[in-house]
Specification:
Helix content is 33%, strand content 17%. It is an alpha+beta fold. It has 2 domains: 111 residues, no CATH class; 70 residues, no CATH class. The longest helix has 28 residues.
Length: 214
C-alpha cells in the first residue's frame, strides 16, 4: 500500500467482506427452509417471524386478527422463552433435530461466537424494560452487570438506572440534558440541550391495528 486510497480500499474490504459472507450464509440457511430473506422480510426478526408463522399460513390461518391461531401461537412462544435455557423450551419430539442443527444458527461457545451468520448471546440478565427500538435497559436485578441503550441521549451526561426506565414506562415525563461542541459560522461553540429523554415514542414505525407487525 502506497497511498491513502490504498488504505481506504483495504479497510473497506475488511469491513465489507465478512458482512457479505455472513449475509450469504444466512441467505443459504433460510433458502433451504423456503424463505428468501431478501424478499420475504426487511429484517432478521421479520424473517424469523415469517418462519415461525409459516406452518400456520400453510394451513390457511388468518394472521391478522388477535383471536386467530397464529397470534396465540406467537404469544405462547414469547412467554416460553422465559425458561432458564433455550433447550428447556424445545418440544420433546424436536429435541433431536434441535441438537443436530443448533450449531448451524446459534453460537454456543467462545470460538463460534466470532463465526459470521450465527445468532449470538448479547446479554443475559433477570429483567428488562424495552420502551421502543434502541431504548432499553436490562440487568441482573441485584448484580452490577447491565446493558442499556437510549437513542438521542449522551450516556456520560445522563445517569440511567432501572428506576428511571421504570418511571418512564409508567408514564412519567423524562427529560434529558445533552452538552457538547458544534460548528457555527465557522467557529467552534458549546451547546446545552434540554429535550425529552426516555419514552415509548418512535416515529420510524408503528404497530399495525392487529397488534403483531409494524
Amino acid at each position: 500500500m502506497r497511498t491513502f486510497a490504498d488504505w481506504l480500499r483495504y479497510y473497506n474490504n475488511l469491513d465489507v467482506a465478512p458482512s457479505l459472507e455472513a449475509l450469504e450464509k444466512m441467505r443459504n440457511f433460510y433458502t433451504e427452509k423456503g424463505i428468501n430473506i431478501l424478499k420475504d422480510a426487511v429484517s432478521i426478526p421479520g424473517v424469523s417471524l415469517h418462519y415461525l408463522l409459516r406452518g400456520a399460513v400453510e394451513r390457511g390461518t388468518e394472521l391478522y386478527s388477535p383471536g386467530k391461531e397464529a397470534y396465540e401461537m406467537l404469544k405462547e412462544a414469547v412467554v416460553a422463552i422465559s425458561g432458564e435455557r433455550l433447550e428447556d423450551i424445545v418440544r420433546p419430539e424436536l429435541k433431536q433435530e434441535f441438537k443436530a442443527e443448533k450449531n448451524q444458527w446459534l453460537a454456543w461457545d467462545k470460538w463460534s461466537s466470532r463465526t459470521p451468520g450465527l445468532f449470538k448471546l448479547e446479554f443475559e440478565g433477570s429483567r428488562m424494560i424495552v420502551l421502543c427500538s434502541k431504548c432499553y435497559y436490562a440487568d441482573e436485578g441485584e448484580g452490577e452487570k447491565k446493558k442499556f441503550s437510549m437513542k438521542g441521549m449522551l450516556k456520560k451526561q445522563n445517569e440511567l438506572m432501572w428506576q428511571r426506565f421504570k418511571e418512564a414506562l409508567e408514564g412519567s415525563k423524562d427529560m434529558a440534558t445533552n452538552r457538547g461542541f458544534r460548528m457555527r459560522d465557522g467557529q467552534m461553540v458549546t451547546y446545552e440541550q434540554q429535550k425529552l429523554g426516555l419514552g415509548e415514542y418512535y416515529d420510524k414505525q408503528w404497530v399495525l391495528p392487529y397488534g403483531i407487525h409494524t
